[in-house]
Structures are given as C-alpha cells and as structure tokens.
Amino acid sequence: MRLAILFSGQGQQSPEHFQALQAMASEETQIQLARQLPDVWQNTTVHCETLGQNRIAQPFIFAFQLQWWQALRPLLPAPVCAAGYSLGELAACCAAGAFDMHEGITLAAQRAASMDDCIQTQAGLIAIMGLPLKNIQSITTASNTHLAIINPDQHHVIGGLVQDLQHAAQLAHEQGAVRIVRLLVQTPSHTVLLKPATLVFKRHLAPYRRKAPLAFKVLSAMDGRSALSVEHALNALAEQISHGMDWGACLQAIRERQPDAVLEIGPGRALARMWNTIYPDIPARSIDDFRSPTGVQHWLEHLPARR
C-alpha cells in the first residue's frame, strides 16, 4: 500500500472539531493548549468566528491534526510522501520528524503571531471560482490585491486588505465568476504583505534546522518540490507564508509518486474532494469521514488492488 497524506489548512474548522480535540487530547497536550489558548480551551462552546482568529485557529488545528496522526501512525503503512495546505505544511513537517508535537504547537502559535503582527488593519482571503488565471491576475492588479493560491479547476485564492478584497470581488462578479467566498482567515496568507512574518518565523525555526533526513518526503505547497531533509523542509515552510502556493502543482507531484490512496487529515474534506475530482482513479478520503482511526485502517485494508 502506497499512501500519501494531505494535511488541511485553515477555513473548515468547526466547534465540533474543537470539541473533538478537547476529548482526545493527551494530558500533556491539554496543559499546553490551556497555556496557549487560555481564553477558550476550557470553554464548552466556542463560536466559529472565534475559531477563525489566527492565534486560536493555528495551534488548535495543528494539535487536532497531530493527535489524529499519532493515533493513526501505528495503524497505517509509512507514507510515500506528505504535503500540507498552508498551515497544514507545519503538520506535515512534524509528522515527518522535523520537530515533535509539543514543539509544533508552540511553533503554530509563533507562526500565527508573526502573521498577525504584519497587518494592523482588517485583511484576509477570498476564493474566486470559474475564472481563468489571466483574469485573476488582471483583477489583483486592478484591486491592489495579491494572488495567494492556485488550485485546480479555476479555483483561485487572493489576499489583501478588506476594502481591496471587496473591490476584487466586485470585479470578479462583473467578469462572470461562478462563486466568490470570503474565507474564515483574517490574514492575507501567501502574499508579499506577510514578508516580515517569513523572516520572523525563520528565526523561530532556527533551533530545529538540521541536515537530518525526514522520515518521508514532504512536498512544498508552493510548487510541489520534495524535501528529503529537515533543513530543506523548514526553509520551504517559512517561505510559503509570504509566497503564493501552486497547490495544483503539488497535487500533480503527489500523483507522480503513484499512491494507491490519499488520506486527508483535516479539519474538513476539501482536499480529498479536490483530489477525487482531478484524479478519480486514486481514492481519497478525509478523517472526517470516519468515527475512529481504526475506521481509516479498515478502509485502507479493504481497498481493491490497483492495476
């Protein structure tokens, strides 16, 4: 079984995911999250708007993903590769051995803080579907926004300040966009506006940078290039904060490694759905489809052999 792992980014986290993490987190993780998220960790109800705040979303999502990974790892074959969508690349690096889970929770909080400190006014990301790349590029130029993510099937994400994003959305509507969605993200990730955050986060990553090999390849969300060493993976991890992502190229690089199955470690199912749309011959599912890690194991064990 050749398994590829995708770690999702921000945008599909929900109160149900937060409650699931509260229930599954180890005692040590509970203590660390109570320290990192003192305003919300003990709450029985947390609203979606709160979970969209960078300083809460990033440590929470990372911890959720790594709790699932730790439960899954002894049940699954070693992955042929892993990739992460935006924040998910931090989880991919951790899963491959660049740092441990508790160091990663701290890094997630530091990543969020470095990004938030770059922007002193309201900003974020919008997704635009149904327009070719050349239209998106003209829209970003006209609206003073920035191309952040290229997804397959004319699904693009742009970032900028709120007033500029509103202008961009109007231009996209006028040009016939099929759908325009404001994402549950409050910083213009993967744009030049966050260049200072890349520099700050590089300093946070410095204690972990070494030439040691990773447990498996981590593919960069920027362009699909594979990292075999901790050093190379961490360089890409810092750079993608302020550089555009070509997620389509990353998925193509995974496809070239000929996996038998793809597993998304969420929150959400967006990456699995995207994969199934463009590569229907290789099955992909998300942990959100299962009630337990053993359900994932059972699915993989009963997949028909690929020819």
UniProtKB/TrEMBL annotation:
One of its GO terms (biological process) is fatty acid biosynthetic process. It comes from the Bacteria. One of its GO terms (cellular component) is cytosol. Residues 6-299 form the Malonyl-CoA:ACP transacylase (MAT) domain. One of its GO terms (molecular function) is [acyl-carrier-protein] S-malonyltransferase activity. SUPFAM superfamilies: FabD/lysophospholipase-like, Probable ACP-binding domain of malonyl-CoA ACP transacylase. InterPro entries: Ac_transferase_dom_sf (IPR001227), Acyl_transferase_dom (IPR014043), Acyl_Trfase/lysoPLipase (IPR016035), Mal-CoA-ACP_Trans/PKS_FabD (IPR050858), Malonyl_transacylase_ACP-bd (IPR016036). Gene3D superfamilies: Malonyl-CoA ACP transacylase, ACP-binding, Malonyl-Coenzyme A Acyl Carrier Protein, domain 2. This is Putative malonyl CoA-acyl carrier protein transacylase. It comes from Advenella mimigardefordensis (strain DSM 17166 / LMG 22922 / DPN7).
